[in-house]
# Entry
Amino acid sequence: MTAWSCKNWDSQAFLQQALESAAERHAIVYALAFLPQTGGGGSGGGEAQQLLAAGYSTGCIRAFDWRHASHLWLGARQAARHCLQWRAHEGGVYALAVVGAGSQSPVLLSAGDDGYIRGWSVEAIAAAAARQQQQQQQQQQFSGEPAAAAPAAVPAPKPLFEAALPRADPPFHVAAAGAPAAQTLSPDGARGAVYVGASDGGLHCFDLARLGQSGGGGGGGPSATLSGHAAAVLGSDCCGATGQVATASEDATVRVWDARAAAPCVAAIDVWAGAAIPPASKADALQCLRSPPATCVRFDGGGGWLVAGSGDGSLTMWGLGLGALAKQLKTGDCVPQALHMQPGEVLVAGSEPHLDRYRFSLESASRSELASGAAWALDVDPASGTVAVGGARGATLLSAFGTRLGQLV
# Structure
């Protein structure tokens, strides 16, 4: 037997392991996306998985079988763990979105702090998750036997394509260090494009077909770059009915874009003041920088209205047809950080551990407490109405009526 010597202790390796362990333990969910079912998700002939993808501050994406998580919570009040995990970006995963949900080959898009957007096959994710779950079930069956070995790791999904964001041309030139982070994703399914908001205030439009042809080499650049924000884009949304895109920025403004117009920025709104400003006015943009940031934004289904959150803890509803403020509402101590609009209802999550449901007129209807702490991410399953809210302590699943259905860690 060889004696252990403290002289052979690798302090750097230990420090790195400790840092990685701490980062994993305190990982924050920044993005969520319900994945459509595909033919690759069955395991052992059983029911197909229903997967939810979660993007983390560590750069990993985890896939959860949220139906299994619901059964586990309702039956035993137990939190569910992921059935698949892979590293998608260097730095946090800030946004996730699904494109081609009704096609044979849907794709999960991810945007990260490293300045890249990447595409992942949903079918490949489902197949890998099913294999991993099968191995976990086999391990549980033999867990009582000392000779049982841990299952081999399932190979991580490979990106179908990736693209790096270029630098935008902001209205105020400042010294820039490194590539801009990709912070938001807004697919335009009707036109086969995706809009990506960046940390330097740029909004980049990528053609999805062109990205798919570029493969994994990173050769697909944006077809258009829209500049106007003086600070980072924190939220964005694309209206399928009109093709317009709304962006919420750290410069305290919301801008509405139409890439087909001669002047792409068709409206600029000072969210804190609740007033329109000239889109090309640098003086007004500079004045807005003194106000709290615009944190998130969403269109209604028809594209005639939008709702934006502000860093001062308020919601602003704007009528695009009238070009005027419809209503402003203080949300108390909660800073809105994630929004979802559905017919007759606005879902809001933010810096406090609860999900608020408002009527379309921004009258408060109900509140659901969250075990996931402060929230950064929100998504709704279109088929069941199940709501997923992610934050500092994993994610919480809620029914369409606000009942707790599960907890993901």
